[in-house]
Amino acid sequence: MLLKIGDVFGIETSNGIAYFQYVHKNEDIGSLIRILPNLYKGNKKDRLHKLVEQKELYLIHFPLDAAFRRKVVSKMGNYPIPKNFVLTKKFRDDHIIKGEFICWHIVDYENWQREKVEKLNDCQKQLSPWGTWNDTLLKERLAEGWTLNNWG
Known about the structure:
By secondary structure, the chain is an alpha+beta fold. The chain has helices spanning 48-53, 64-69, 122-125, 135-143, and strands at 7-13, 16-26, 30-35, 58-62, 73-78, 90-97, 100-108, 114-117. The protein is 16% helix and 37% strand.
């Protein structure tokens, strides 16, 4: 079964089911998903059309094809990407060496150029993480309530 832009998936975490929407495919780094708000007890398939319209918590690259084949995620349906969604041109990454925070990197999505930043401004604090999270890390972060605001 082919995955399509707009597909919405559920993933089971230790604190409930999280939902996300597939929004972009990058040939180098893979599937980009938008993490939808909140965790839910039980299946919320009947309310997904409203959930998908909400502002995402953040974006992250995720090996969606593999997770779907391994039945780590469940496809819930395909929904239009909200009209106000804009594919970001920048992401951020914390540059840590030997456990010590060095700086932030602002990564340009088109050319992967990195800009070193000592302290994030308010706009940069809203940038999604650069990189790919596997299903284990995604489930952990979702269960613990990880957000852009409590990162760094």
